[in-house]
Write a structure and sequence with these properties.
heterotetramer; A mainly alpha (about 500); B mainly alpha (about 170); C mainly alpha (about 400); D mainly alpha (about 100); A: about 500 residues; mainly alpha; two-stranded antiparallel ribbon; 23 helices; about 75% helix; C: about 400 residues; two-stranded antiparallel sheet; globular
Chain lengths: ~500, ~170, ~400, ~100
């Protein structure tokens, strides 16, 4: 009768990053109760230590690759890449948060604990090989970020952002779940390897359960329709998380209302994790039914790029502008997904890596300049920053140039690989439209640059305090990483190519 | 017999669900939603999911909806204003929704031909024992992850709803 | 099939008849107990020793004017007492009162219906029981009623947790969710009852269960929802006549349900505390005979004149009952009923005793107590039990 | 007498889901909007349980169990967010909660 409930040690090692993050998050809460200090640097330091430990754990788990927990989790190149990416995003977020939270008098243990939990959820998503684990990872990550968005409770805009993010997020989650239910009915399993096996050898009916749609339909009915509906529903849920059109409406309000470090985190961490899930579901499990979902992604990619870029043109609020630009960037990544090739998958990984650094850097500068209570967010407020704070302005220049896609920055190679993969899959029109879009995008990024270097100092630039060590470290790391990816892309590219090839 | 039970509770569920949507007062919507949940619990029993049926009543009707009713009473929420809605939503909404419902219903109806049926007692492996065994063996990882989720929910609720920021 | 329906109908009539009578008389017993704690006689006028008082109360409640205030939300205002009463009576359907019996060659259980998930059913019904109170307070459109029902909702949600956790530990020992099998697993004497048996006696869980049950029934010292000195009458301020009586009866029905649950979960149900061969079957006879003799003695030397007839009559009834318990033919089904009734009765007496003794808690103390002490204690108990059960198997 | 076609259960689930979507789109009270999401989750649970019956596997029950756990967690956080919004704005109408515009 007694079953051996203790999982094998190999399973635990493959789950190590999540375990480390969760334990440290809990420890932070306990510590906050013992220290009885509302606001302290110690929480930030501890969470940096936790994230570094988790990074180590992720690398260590990579040395012991393979499936875990009955194939619910799989540690491979893709998982490790995205785990490392979200953990690094977490480190940068914490570094950028020190001064920001101090200014708001809100550097509490809970903030850091929630951040750690959220990252743990994203790591779980990156490694998940079962839709139920994906779902729970997604919810861990989302619930923690809902709270983080509304963390400054007395700020009206933050409340509103949290409410919108929460309502639309749960709405999208319900669609995702309905998709999961249909997948379960069609294939009799929701394990992604199982789904793939059921879809590749469907006529045998062995992989799927005897009662599944695959068997019942007996190949008289057009089963790809069902699969298409299931894929569409899953796409709604994930498309929301990556703010792809037409599920992008929440992004501008949430990015604008949330505290700047949280915005930086939201626009990179959850997005990267959701794309990891995207890759696993669409490039691996649903690969056999690829024709059913390709038009969907094609349309969404184009819509995201166009809506994002053209709406960004009209914005005067920089946070809002960056929000629209992040919608556009999700569109570029979707272009690579549409390619449905190993090269495309590798391009997705590379692009998200580069994008994480440049976007966090940009938001960190915005948060730095915004001052107490985030008063200065207008594009005018960047006037004369180059004069007053040359270092900050130089960093922002690097990030913005990378966002445009200028050579020698990570953004350039990211876009290059994406469009290369798209062309190789004969998506000529999408490539052309994407390139046109990047040209449009250059305009609104350049506007900020012009403002910084060719205008008189604004009130915000005059009031801006000098860069504190934490923020400076975050900016330096991001800038160096952006340039590194732009000058030596091969190191990361080789890894992503290898992982993408392994994914099948 | 099974068909009759199904139809009775399916009709109650749909009627209550419609009521959730058309009632203007949140508390009427909440009570209707409890009605949906109760009738779904009976339908779960029909499908042999006795543990889920009990969990449905305990968790959904007994905990989540009580929380809703509690918040509605706490905020003393009144009936919602009927004016000032976006005209676009009203014009485009119903046809789009009907289309969506049509497609969805068509697809799920096509999933299984008519000869695939369910009757009470056709599936008896939904007992607490079966669910528990699967929960602690096959689904151990999601189970543990779900506990983290609940921890987050507690922390989050406390962070947001606490009185002072001191 | 036909006999099944007939038996079911008969059982339903008997159970609900007995239950409703018990509800009416529980009220009388409570008034008497409280009165004796406070050294006064209690109801005395209607019938001998006030025995007809419940009848008088019912007549009064039915004939009272049925007020329905103009400012209430009609539908919910009418639905709330109905809901409270229905839910309170529903749990009794799955509660077994005794083992299988044979009546006229047909074997049946002293239970309306057995569910595999009987415990979950009771939990489910009790978890939605809060709606009756919440809706009553809300629909009354009265701030005191609203406050009362807000308090009540919060209180019931909070105490539901320790209650469920306390239920979980005996379930671990008994390894079943069916109430009937639960009793079977504890058969064989008091040392096999979940409250006392090894490897880990559930005596703490029993105490936690009782405390939480007091709160779930809104009883003193947790009767905040109807604290009359601050909230008038709490959630049922606006209710009168039979609608008020419904709330009142549902409270007593809930008390009976939780007492039955405590008996089934922790005290071995209808199982005698020690086996019949050591004379446990003589206990009711001895007790009843003792009571009968005492009544006869007091009848011979009455304090008051009227007792000259009533007490000997009562004594005769007791002696007759004592004799009935000796008949082997009825002993097989009367003994379980006696033990079940005795255990449930003791717990109900505890309810009244506490009401006569303890003061009411303040609201924040009440919530703090649930979350800071009761919940961790229940959790700890469950963990220890789990470890010991796993270690033992 | 007789048994119920599986497709009826699925249709019921789809109808409830669509009604949830309708509630989400047309209601203006934040709490009702949130309740519509719960309705959608309930519809999904019915699908899970139905497929579980059809496949004669218990897994679907587990999924709907996890959905319930998640729904409970979401309810706690969501209602807390609604409370903070109400505290700052004294309104529960979703149209009044839109201070940020392009």
């Amino acid at each position: 009768m007694p079953v051996d409930l203790m999982p094998a040690s190999a399973d635990l090692i493959r789950l190590l990053p999540e375990i480390v993050l969760t334990l440290m998050g809990t420890l932070l809460m306990v510590l906050a109760a013992i220290l009885r200090k509302r606001s302290s640097n110690a929480y930030g330091n501890l969470s940096i230590a936790a994230l570094l430990a988790a990074l180590g754990a992720a690398v260590y788990a990579y040395t012991r690759q393979g499936p875990a927990f009955g194939n619910m989790l799989v540690v491979d190149g893709l998982a490790t890449f995205f785990r490392a990416l979200v953990i690094v995003v977490g480190i940068l977020t914490v570094l950028a948060s020190y001064r920001f939270l101090r200014r708001q008098g809100a550097e509490t243990g809970e903030y850091h604990a929630l951040l750690l939990f959220s990252i743990a959820g994203q790591c779980l998503m990156a490694a998940a090989n079962d839709l139920i684990v994906v779902f729970i990872g997604l919810e861990i990550s989302s619930l923690a970020s809902y709270v983080m968005v509304g963390y400054l409770r007395d700020d009206k805009r933050a409340n509103e952002a949290a409410l919108k993010y929460f309502l639309l997020g749960s709405f999208a989650t319900a669609f995702f779940l309905y998709g999961v239910a249909l997948v379960y009915g069609i294939t009799g399993t929701i394990n992604l390897s199982g789904v793939r096996a059921a879809l590749t050898a469907p006529e045998s009916c062995l992989q799927a359960g005897a009662g599944s749609v695959l068997c019942v339909q007996n190949w008289l009915a057009p089963w790809p329709i069902f699969l298409g509906v299931a894929a569409a529903l899953l796409f709604v849920g994930l498309g929301f998380k990556v703010s792809a059109a037409p599920f992008q409406i929440w992004a501008p309000d949430v990015y604008q209302g949330a505290p700047s470090p949280v915005t930086a985190f939201l626009s990179t961490g959850p997005k990267a994790a959701a794309f990891a899930v995207f890759l696993r579901i669409f490039m691996s499990a649903f690969e056999p039914g690829g024709a059913a979902w390709e038009p969907l992604v094609w349309f969404s990619a184009l819509a995201s790029m166009t809506i994002g870029n053209f709406a960004a043109l009209r914005q005067s609020n920089v946070k809002r502008m960056l929000a629209y630009s992040s919608i556009a960037h999700a569109g570029y990544v979707l272009v690579a997904l549409t390619a449905r090739s190993a090269d495309g998958a590798a391009a997705v990984m590379f692009y998200l890596g580069a994008y994480a650094f440049m976007n966090i850097g940009a938001f960190a500068v915005v948060g730095h300049l915004a001052g107490k209570g985030e008063r200065y967010q207008d594009i005018e407020d960047f006037g004369g920053l180059g004069q007053k704070q040359p270092l900050t302005a130089a960093m922002l220049t690097i990030f913005l140039l990378s966002l445009i896609g200028v050579p020698l920055t990570g953004g350039f190679f990211g876009k290059f690989y994406i469009f290369k993969a798209a062309l190789e899959s004969h998506l000529v029109w999408l490539t052309v439209l994407g390139l046109l879009n990047s040209a449009v995008a250059a305009y609104y990024y350049l506007r900020v640059l012009v403002m910084m270097y060719f205008r008189e100092p604004s009130q915000a630039a005059i009031e801006a305090e000098p860069l504190r060590p934490g923020l400076r470290a975050a900016l330096l790391v991001s800038a160096v990483a952006t340039l590194f990816l732009g000058i030596f892309p091969n190191w990361v590219l080789d890894f992503s190519n290898k992982s993408a090839a392994m994914m099948k | 017999m099974d068909v009759v039970i199904f139809l009775i509770f399916a009709i109650i569920a749909v009627a209550c669900a419609i009521n959730v949507v058309v009632q203007t007062h949140p508390i009427s919507s909440a009570i209707s939603l409890v009605g949906v949940m109760g009738s779904l619990a009976v339908i779960y029993l029909l499908l042999g999911a006795e543990f889920i049926a009990a969990a449905q009543v305990i968790v959904y009707a007994g905990a989540i909806m009580v929380l809703f009713v509690f918040v509605i009473m706490l905020l003393n929420a009144g009936a919602e204003a009927t004016k000032g809605r976006a005209p676009m939503a009203h014009l485009l909404g119903p046809p789009l929704l009907a289309a969506f419902l049509g497609i969805l219903a068509f697809v799920v109806r096509r999933l299984f031909p008519r000869e695939y049926t369910a009757h009470f007692g056709g599936f008896t492996h939904g007992t607490a024992k079966d669910v528990g065994r699967a929960l602690f063996t096959t689904y151990l990882l999601p189970f543990e992850a779900a506990s983290v989720l609940i921890l987050i929910a507690i922390i989050g609720a406390v962070v947001l709803a606490r009185k002072e920021m001191d | 099939m036909d006999s099944f329906i007939v038996i079911s109908v008969v059982k339903a009539v008997v159970v609900f008849g007995a239950l409703l009578t018990a509800l009416a008389y529980l009220q009388w017993v409570e008034r008497k107990v409280i009165a004796h704690i406070q050294v006064r006689p209690g109801p005395y006028r209607v019938g001998p020793h006030g025995l007809l008082q419940p009848v008088a109360d019912i007549v009064k409640l039915i004939t009272k004017e049925d007020l329905s205030p103009p400012f209430v939300n009609k539908t919910l205002y009418l639905a709330a007492p109905f809901l409270a009463m229905t839910l309170a009576l529903m749990s009794i359907c799955v509660i077994p009162f005794g083992p299988a019996i044979r009546v006229g060659g047909v074997q049946t259980w002293m239970q309306l219906t057995d569910l595999n998930i009987g415990v979950l059913f009771v939990l489910a019904v009790s978890s939605i029981g809060v709606y009756g109170i919440a809706l009553a307070g809300w629909s009354s459109n009265n701030k005191y009623a609203l406050l009362g029902s807000l308090r009540s909702s919060a209180q019931m949600i909070s105490y539901e947790l320790p209650l469920s956790l306390a239920i979980a530990s005996p379930l671990l020992l008994s390894n079943t969710l069916s109430l009937r099998l639960l009793v079977d697993s504890q058969a064989g004497g008091a040392w096999r009852w979940n409250a006392l048996r090894g490897p880990f006696p559930q005596i703490f869980a029993f105490v936690i269960f009782l405390i939480a049950a007091f709160a779930e029934c809104n009883r003193v010292p947790f009767d905040l929802p109807e604290a009359e000195n601050e909230l008038v009458a709490g959630f049922h301020t606006e209710y009168s006549s039979m609608k008020f009586a419904s709330f009142f009866m549902s409270e007593y029905a809930n008390m009976i349900t939780v007492s039955c649950m405590a008996t089934l979960l922790f005290l071995g149900g209808w199982d005698a505390p020690w086996p019949a061969r050591y004379g446990s079957s003589l206990v009711p006879t001895v007790l009843l005979a003792g009571a009968g003799l005492m009544a006869l003695y007091h009848g011979i030397h009455p304090w008051r004149r009227r007792d000259r007839y009533s007490l000997p009559a009562a004594g005769a009834v007791f002696l007759l009952a004592a004799a009935v318990f000796l008949l082997p033919a009825v002993q097989s089904w009367l003994m379980p009923l006696f033990w079940f009734g005795a255990k449930v009765g003791s717990i109900l007496f505890a309810f009244m005793w506490v009401r006569g003794t303890l003061p009411r808690l303040r609201y924040d103390q009440l919530m703090g107590f649930a979350w800071k002490y009761l919940f961790p204690a229940a959790m700890l108990n469950l963990l220890l039990t789990g470890f010991l059960v796993a270690w033992g198997s | 007498m007789g048994s119920v076609p599986i497709s009826w259960f699925l249709t019921l689930s789809a109808v409830l889901f669509a009604l949830g979507v309708a509630g989400f789109l047309f209601r203006r009270s934040i709490i009702t909007v949130f309740m519509s999401i719960e309705l959608m989750l309930n519809a999904v649970n019915l699908s899970f349980v139905t497929f579980s019956y059809q496949l004669k596997k218990v897994d679907g029950h587990l999924f709907s169990f996890f959905v319930m756990v998640v729904a409970a967690a979401e309810a706690a956080v969501g209602l807390a967010i609604i409370l903070t919004v109400f505290r700052n704005r004294k309104t529960l109408n979703i149209d009044d909660v839109s201070s940020m515009k392009d």
